Description:
The complex is a heterodimer of chains A (801) and B (361).
Chain A lengths: L1 E3 H7 E2 L4 H10 L3 E6 L8 E11 L2 E10 L6 E5 L9 E5 L4 E2 L4 E2 L3 E3 L2 E3 L2 E2 L27 H4 L6 E5 L10 H10 L4 E2 L17 E3 L7 E8 L8 H9 L7 H13 L4 E4 L7 E5 L5 E3 L5 E3 L5 E5 L2 E5 L17 E7 L2 H11 L4 H6 L8 H16 L2 E2 L3 E3 L8 E5 L1 H7 L5 H10 L3 E3 L4 E5 L10 H12 L22 H15 L3 E2 L5 E2 L1 H6 L19 E2 L4 H13 L6 E9 L7 E10 L20 H14 L8 E3 L6 E11 L3 E9 L1 H7 L5 E7 L25 E10 L4 H9 L6 E10 L8 E10 L8 H19 L2 E2 L2
Helix pairs in contact in A: 1-4, 4-11, 5-6, 6-9, 10-12, 11-12, 13-16, 18-19
Chain B lengths: L2 H15 L3 H12 L4 H8 L5 H41 L11 H4 L4 H15 L3 E2 L5 E2 L1 H4 L10 H4 L16 E2 L5 H9 L4 E10 L10 E11 L4 H16 L6 E8 L2 E12 L7 E2 L4 E11 L1 H6 L8 E8 H9 L12 H7 L16
Parallel strand pairs in B: 1-4
Antiparallel strand pairs in B: 2-3, 4-5, 5-10, 6-7, 7-8, 7-9, 9-10
Amino acid sequence: MKFTLSWLKDHLETDATLDEIVERLTAIGLEVESVDDKAALKPFVIAKVLTAARHPDADKLQVLSVDTGSGAPIQVVCGAPNARAGLIGAFAAPGTYVPGIDVTLSVGKIRGVESHGMMCSERELELSDEHNGIIDLPADAPVGTSFAAYANLDDPLIEINLTPNRPDATSVHGIARDLAASGLGTLKTAPVETVAGKGETPVKLTIEAPELCPGFALRLVRGVKNGSSPKWMQQRLIAIGLRPINTLVDITNYLTFDRGRPLHVYDARKVAGNFTVRRALDGEKVLALDEREYTLTPDMCVIADANGADSIAGVMGGEHTGCDENTTDVLIESALWEPLNVARTGRHLGIITDARYRFERGVDPEFMVPGLELATRMVLDLCGGEPTEAEVVGYAGHEPKVVSFPLSEVKRLTGIEVPRDESLSILTRLGFKPLGNGEVVDVEVPSWRPDVDGKADLVEEVMRIHGVDEIVPQPLSSHDAVNGKILTTLQIRSRSARRALAVRGMMEAVTWSFISARQAELFGGGKPELKLANPIAAEMSDMRPSLLPGLLTAAQRNADRGFGDVALFEVSGTYEGDTPAAQRRVAAGIRRGTARLDGAGRSWSGNAGAVGVFDAKADALAALEACGAPVDRLQIEAGAPGWYHPGRSGVIKLGPKTVLGTFGEFHPRTLEALDVSGPVAGFEVFIDAVPEPKAKPTRTKPKLELSAFQAVKRDFAFVVDKAVEAGTLTRAAAGADKKLITGVSVFDVFEGASLGEGKKSVAIEVSIQPVERTLTDEDFEALAARIVENVKKQTGGALRG
Amino acid sequence: MTDIDQLERSITDAIAAAPDEQAIEAVRVAALGKKGTISERLKTLGAMSPEERQSMGPVINGLKNRVTEALAARKSELKDVAIAARLAAEKVDVTLPVRQSPAERGRIHPISQVIDEIAAIFGDLGFAIAEGPDVETDYYNFTALNFPEGHPAREMHDTFFFNPDEKGERKVLRTHTSPVQIRTMETQKPPIRIVIPGKTYRQDSDATHSPMFHQVEGLVIDRSANVANMKWVLEEFCKAFFEVPSVKMRFRPSFFPFTEPSLEVDIQCDRSRPGEVRFGEGSDWMEILGCGMVHPNVLRAGGLDPDEYQGFAWGMGIDRIAMLKYGMPDLRAFFDADVRWLQHYGFRPLDMPTLFGGLSS
């Protein structure tokens, strides 16, 4: 919403400065978005050319002597063809910034003659494109005074960022009312007088869709003369960014902003028969004032004449009945339209107009008829003519809302004590009518405030006018105990997983929650309920089923920039469905190139190798461990999803059913489809699947038992079938004596012809901790025999000879 | 010169000439070994007369003792030389670089770090952290938050919609974190003090708008929380978050469907230095959050009686306050995963924001 200061002062008697007005507007909730105080035009003064002589060294230049009203005449070199003695124009002294040529003037010599300023053209002041000569003012223009003030160009323009709840402030009048209520002046809007019309309006109007049109007022004015509107009106319209058309149209635009009352004018001689307000026919077409044809649906409301739909109700008038310079008889419309319907119609047709803006917020129903009277008055004043009687159809009158308002609500909700009289006075100044003397008053809501429904709304009115700054911050009651844990288990896990992965040299990425349909399908997604109906781009259409595609493509982007060794992770949501439970919490990471734990790239101490499945496995386990998963009880199995390399990937399980994660190198087809080049390995762990830790009655750790006897290590090498998994073998060895054996690690895996076809050798180191006594050679032999026996039983392997 | 003297001279010369421990050992064996020159002399004592023995005994034993001492001294001397030689040989160029520790290379994304900072501050004020789903129903995202069907206020949010289901209902990507207000009220009795960080989505994209962004919502509901308390909480938060001793904030009446009264909040700052924002000084106002008293209809939607319970809520952009505090110029870079950006703007994994240790180092 834009308006100029002088326009505001038509409605508000005030001594306040521009700055005070701007500050107050923002303070009462009418946030000032911008102020153009026209300061750029201030330095230009009206000056008179006393003499004009040919430049001694240039045919097209003249040397002027100019009276700027500041004493001695000033010498100016000028190239304008219309410069002559006696001309009065706009002068810029040295030091002035001239916007049209983007130059700050200085005293200069032009072909050897000093010039102490400039006589300006309209283009140089950015008033128009006129540059055939310098500005040529009437002879009575006061020399030495401000050019901007003389030309009414010094009227500051204010733009406010209006919230959608304030239709009353879509008018200069309404803004003035708010300012007056806040004590910044007196509202002085002239009252609207009723125009006495003669005879009935010959065009009749029938409302067939009363649910969309709660009222319609219409009048004919015959014998008007429709030329250009007066300069003051044009200047205001231009200032707020509107283009003057002709007087009749300009009056409707002017009152739209002046009073928040959108109007429409029809050239009566172009209207066929009578008017009907009805729903549009399906597929009915309308040629609107923007010279575009719109196709309508029965959800939309039109004003039709005998030729069919003419105007789109509340949104835009019709081209066929528009007013032009030849209009002599004008029909003036002031109507009410159902706000939601106007909003929907405008949205569907993609039309944004000042009328729609107001109707969809809700115009003052009680100003429908006064609006018609005011428009008629202006038409008569500016275009002449003879009005008929106003015809008002369908308007049942306004039933004011009444809100029961306990005055204590102000203190209860804001914390500030506003005296009763002050609260009631604020409401009265805003047009509310408080009734009653008790602690609870009935407040009648004015017809222009459809947004006010309840007592909290009234608290806001009192608060904003009384002043938000008056509210002194008060501490929130403090809790009377040390604050406990404030994060949920899942939040703690997300946080721990992030730090654990970052400590492993990975960088946290935040990638889009939506990916392309193709990528989603590659990773098991693409469900219809997870497809956006209105994605921002085609490649951001599906909610991601996995964090991996986002990370893989991010790694490739980095590689394309020359950073091929990257380790990225993300801890965030993935989507298996559209319910809250189907949103998973996942930690995922990838390593590309040689970005291994110890560092990437070449080094004098040894080059990093390419990343692989075991790098991903280590990351996955680290993330799970950080989330409190029982890492020693996890099973690792083959059988990861299809986007992984089938022979170099695994699934991490807890028990037979719970899948905690997957890891591995990627299937070459997956990488190809994503346009990602390797080597690359990654993992995904489902941190919401880790069982909730058991509530413990005590934080005491189990007692530490330290053996007094020396721990020893024994090595074994077994020859097994190639298919035997190392995990099975180590579990078998460890199971030989759960009391004595504290650990089994694999230190060598070897395949070779010497072992026989399809065989491999797995060498393990068994850690043994005697607990009761030092073990004898016989004890060790017996233990070794049990280990060999157990491994043989579980894997069919034999001790390597 | 006696032959003993001669023997001693030759052994002493041999000791002195021995270049290493091995040579010394050879000298020892030659002199004191079973068949060594001195051992052989000692053996001759047995065949001597007592007188002879009396005079020769001390001579030969004296020789033995001196040679033994000389051997030990030389051996120790040679060992020192050997160690010195080994150490000299083992010298390396200690200026050769070592690999950087993984903990030094890793980075936490600024969004995660700022969420931790927010949690540290509100944890101190007695708040808990709540979360909710990204895919929401129209009810939780709009209707329960007092956005009437078809109201222009819904248009303030450029909403992402899913395709309608068989009942014609379409889910949305939440446009704000406010749905979690309702979800919390449905499951938790007042007093409620929560902050809700999370992802939010709007169909908008430029340098300061991203189709996905992050918000943090705050909600306080009890029997007395009012605008004065809200101003205090938000001022305390901004001071703590921006790590300045004081901030000046401007509360302007505004409009949000889910609060009444509603306010927007600007923070005073100095933006005169390129690429840098300083809070607690300067003459610019920058909008940083919206807030207000929870609308009675929202309390009702959450199953609470608005005459019994009251409270306030606020929402602000996590990405935005991160940009303000740490100076990233472009929001879009947050989601690009450029390792150079992460390396520069990200945080070290062991830099944990706490109030006792300072939010940022």
